[in-house]
Write a structure and sequence with these properties.
Layout lengths: L14 H13 L5 H31 L4 H30 L12 H13 L5 H19 L2 E4 L2 E4 H4 L8 H17 L1 H21 L5 H8 L7 H29 L26 H15 L1 H12 L3 E4 L9 E5 L4 E8 L3 H20 L5 H4 L3 H14 L10 H34 L5 H15 L18 H4 L6 H4 L5 H19 L1 H12 L7 H7 L8 H20 L1
Parallel strand pairs: 3-5
Antiparallel strand pairs: 1-2, 4-5
Helix pairs in contact: 1-2, 1-3, 2-3, 3-4, 3-5, 5-8, 8-9, 10-16, 10-23, 11-12, 13-15, 15-20, 16-17, 16-20, 16-23, 20-21, 20-23, 21-22
């Protein structure tokens, strides 16, 4: 059995337990290439333990935002361990890079060394307290959102629970639910705006401290975006406007016509346009889990067995409840080599897609789990999202596990239309972030003006005119709807990845329709590489092209449009 530098039972929730091992790494003498490799391996083993401790603290914190013990444990890690880790990581990074023997390292370390050089470039000790403050502010945002509930139909409901009412065929119920939810959201808009404005200042200062002109450039370096630039993202926005917006407006015009409406209101965007009952794929978490297990086993024994491991190891927290943070995520427990999935399931089709999406992340974790080093398993986000977004599309033929044939077809249509709707939203958030951090000293009114300007380009033509009743100011939601996108608070600049990944997912979907076995082979081939290759090479390993051109994006969106056209004519 391989010897370990740090014991598996090390309690990494206390700094005094971690520090001796970090000091040992810091003081280690390096007199050969083998010594550097030993240092990298031992640091990786320690990082696995610390990473899993952080993961469990985060999972507990988001699972119960109203549990003070969990909140304290998370804050302790963020305030007392993470800052000190940053200092030691920089020392060890420099110890590796500044050694003459680094030039003789095998090729397997090339990607890691490139990332280390970027991390050294951005690290400044004076940024540590600023980053700690940002983590605390992000936690505060989650606490605020986790506490947002409304009383509706005689019960207290979380906002994820309220989403299902937007699919009701009764327009009065949809409107009433929308008003109740929006009114509750607006109660916190001032506090959330204050949090965001402090974040903008802190992030800009971090970038300046690190020698960058702004937070855009800083984050591209911090996120190791080596394969594309800010200009590429801007080209991507233009390609999405060109390829998606005409289709998006057509879909909304058809919605207005089919629903026989004079005005398309915000509570009219999710209801079935043919008056059919809302899609209800499952009623509780067990039904969701069992149905997904059948889907993945139908695709391949390997995927099915992977998914079953999640339930067997208590790695699923799926149902919405009071005090639970919104959203969904997969968090890989690096030492246990087990993925954990968190979400807020209330029985909607979107919940099913989220479950499959996060399962795709889990499959990525399983496929790359054989790699020795933590850095090798930590794939670039853009390709990690290919794993998840592809799985949404590759499972299409199996959705009859949750529906009768007609409703399964409705669900597939809804999902494909959702892709055309989502791509402009991705461009909206990415455009907004680029502007925010390019203009960090903007006023609140300027931010509203820019948000509305971007909405004019990428948004739906929803009519808010005369929407306020006496004493209401619900129309303000269009000015602050960005507050609902948690990435802006907890993961800045993490959003264009979804768009890039969708391009990869659509290509795999096309392969799957032609030859499902070959598509799953390509899927596994790319995912198994973890981060041992660069982003463009990972795309290529799965047979995918990475391009932001109008021609490439339009071709893929046309594939979606053609599929929708085929369905509607049959």
């Amino acid at each position: 059995m391989e010897s370990r530098f740090a014991p598996n039972d090390l309690d990494a929730s206390k700094w005094e337990n971690i520090e001796p091992f970090l000091n040992s790494l810091k003081q280690r003498r390096i007199n050969s290439t083998n010594c550097i490799e030993d240092l990298i391996r031992d640091e990786s083993q320690l990082s696995e333990i610390v990473s899993e401790t952080r993961a469990k603290a985060y999972i507990n914190m988001t699972s119960q935002t109203d549990n003070q013990e969990y909140q304290k444990a998370w804050r302790d890690f963020v305030e007392n361990i993470q800052p000190k880790l940053s200092e030691y990581n920089d020392i060890i990074n420099k110890k590796i890079i500044n050694n003459d023997f680094v030039e003789n390292l095998p090729e397997r370390y090339d990607i890691m060394i490139k990332g280390i050089k970027s991390d050294i470039k951005i690290f400044r000790e004076e940024n540590i307290p600023l980053q700690t403050r940002l983590s605390i502010l992000s936690t505060k945002y989650n606490e605020i959102r986790g506490k947002q509930t409304v009383f509706f139909e005689g019960e207290e409901k979380t906002l994820p629970m309220m989403a299902i009412y937007q699919e009701s065929n009764d327009r009065e119920i949809r409107e009433s639910a929308w008003r109740a939810t929006t009114s509750r959201i607006l109660k916190d808009e001032e506090e959330i705006s204050n949090i965001f404005e402090e974040m903008i200042k802190l992030r800009n200062q971090i970038a300046i401290n690190s020698g960058f002109s702004g937070f855009q450039e800083y984050m591209f370096a911090a996120m190791h975006r080596f394969d594309y630039s800010i200009d590429d993202c801007l080209e991507f926005h233009d390609s999405i406007e060109y390829s998606c917006m005409p289709l998006k407006h057509q879909m909304n015009d058809l919605r207005k016509e089919k629903l026989e409406l004079d005005k398309l209101r915000p509570w009219d965007t999710s209801v079935d346009i043919d008056g059919k009952k809302p899609l209800k794929p499952f009623f509780d978490a067990d039904e969701l889990i069992n149905g997904c297990s059948r889907i993945f086993h139908s695709m391949s024994k390997e995927l099915g067995d992977f998914f079953d491991l999640l339930k067997e190891n208590n790695c699923l927290d799926l149902e919405s409840r009071k005090g639970k943070a919104p959203g969904g995520y997969q968090y890989y427990l690096q030492k246990s080599r087990m993925p954990f999935i968190f979400m807020n399931a209330t029985g909607t089709q979107r919940n099913l897609e989220t479950m499959i999406h996060e399962a795709g992340h889990a499959f990525h974790s399983f496929y790359s789990g054989h790699l020795d080093l933590i850095s090798e398993r930590d794939a670039p986000i853009e390709f990690a999202e290919v794993a998840s977004m592809s799985m949404e599309l590759l499972t299409h033929p199996y959705w009859e596990e949750f529906y009768e044939k007609e409703d399964a077809e409705r669900a597939r249509i809804k999902h494909l239309k959702g892709i055309i709707q989502f791509m402009p939203w991705m461009a909206t958030i990415d455009s907004f972030q680029n502007w925010i951090y390019k203009n960090p000293n903007h006023t609140r009114s300027e931010r509203v003006e820019k948000w509305l300007e971007i909405q004019e380009i990428f948004g739906s033509k929803i009519d808010y005119d005369g929407i306020n009743k006496e004493g209401e100011n619900l129309e303000k939601i269009i000015e602050i709807s960005w507050q609902l996108q948690g990435h802006l608070f907890g993961a800045p600049f993490y959003y264009v990845e979804y768009g890039i990944a969708q391009l990869g997912a659509l290509q795999l979907w096309k392969f799957h329709k032609e030859n499902n076995i070959n598509a799953l082979r390509l899927y596994k081939n790319g995912l198994s590489l973890g981060y041992t290759k660069g982003l463009t090479e990972l795309f290529a390993a799965s047979g995918l092209k990475m391009s932001f051109s109008k021609d490439h994006v339009s071709k893929l969106i046309r594939e979606v449009s053609d599929q929708l056209q085929d369905v509607s004519t049959n």
